[in-house]
Give the backbone structure.
Amino acid sequence: MHGNVKRPSESWAVFCLFARDVRAVRLVMHTNINASECVEYVERLAAFGTRHTLSTTTDGKRGIGAARLWLSEQLRAFGGNLRVELESHDAPVTARTPSGGELVNVVATLPGRLATARHRRVYCMAHYDSMNADIMNALDDAPGANDNASGCGIVLACAKALANTRPDATIVFLLTAGEEQGLLGARAHAQALRAQSELREVIVLNNDTVGDPGPMLLREGLPALSDDPTRAVVRMFSEGLPKAASGESVATIRTLGGEHDSPSRQLARAIAGIAQQDASVAMPWLIARPDRFLRGGDHTPFNECGFAAVRFTSLAEEYSRQHVHPQMRDGRLYGDVPSFVQGEYLAAVARLNCKALRVLANAPSSPANARIVAAGMEQDTLVRWDSAAEEDVARYEVLWRDTTSNVWQASRSVDADVRELRVGVSKDNAYFAVRAVDADGNASVPAFCVAANA
Ligand SMILES: [Zn+2]
């Protein structure tokens, strides 16, 4: 089906069936990330047989121990400015880790160059553990090609592409263990991060199951996701009401009508905006929901700790291949194996990550104290903000939109020394945000405006 829109047969209700022939996704060269490199990473990780969190750590060729050693060696081989470490945590005793044990995350840090950006950190992450049909089976094969060697391939590809750069703010490439056992590695890392009081702006891009667009996409009655039917599309989940919000914060959110304006949702919109500027990267489909039903992911512990985090996942998941025992049928291997991973699709999602990392780590901070002045009865709106910390701010942009729109619809720029703007729309009828932009056009994640007296 190459036309992408199939007219339904008469016996079906009227709906559009979008199917993507991934082989048709254009090959576009970009920042050294290509399909064959991404597929190689997936094949290599699947070849460890299993990467179950409780699998062997003493076998040189099989199990999670050999896999993490290989991951750290790859990252070290990229050289440049990357600092690589194995980060160890004690696993809690849970139903899925009955004897506790050691959780080892692989962490590669690309230090930021600006002292004024030390309070910020941008993450590109994926879990490297895997499972088969039995969550406690640490012995049998669990190749986890799509879930989640694909995400690891993206983290590796981005680390390689950026290794020799010096971004304004620090970028962290994080590969976690224990995701399938209950998001354990990510939670341990996020909680340690929260304890660092100097970190005030943490942004997380979590990649999990991003290796192929999936069997088909049902979008009954909904418009096409992109004008270009060959463009790869990836779902991007983000929380609305922050999981970490206190009762007082929830009351403020209710007063503002800010249920769709959490830091994670601002991050999601910012990434979608970045993708629109570059046709070679996958187009994110904004899903206004923390995650898929009945499922979880490593972005959630970061949300629990109050950080902005989104999850990338393929367009539609092939449930018959996930979390199953690999098996031969009609001479073909079934299960979560590398042959089902689509290199061009994976590379497009990797380029999306890489582009977003470049922009977000080089952009200034989100302006602090962004607010609408709600002290008087006025027809228009006065927006105010504090300056961003970095010295390379070239301008600020005030953004606004109708309260029923999920994306920013209007904007106006002001000079870097300006801290307020009057906009000809009533504060009652629109949402406002402010972002800081550097001379290269790298824009911060917008800061949502609360209401204040001055
Ligand atoms: Zn996963």
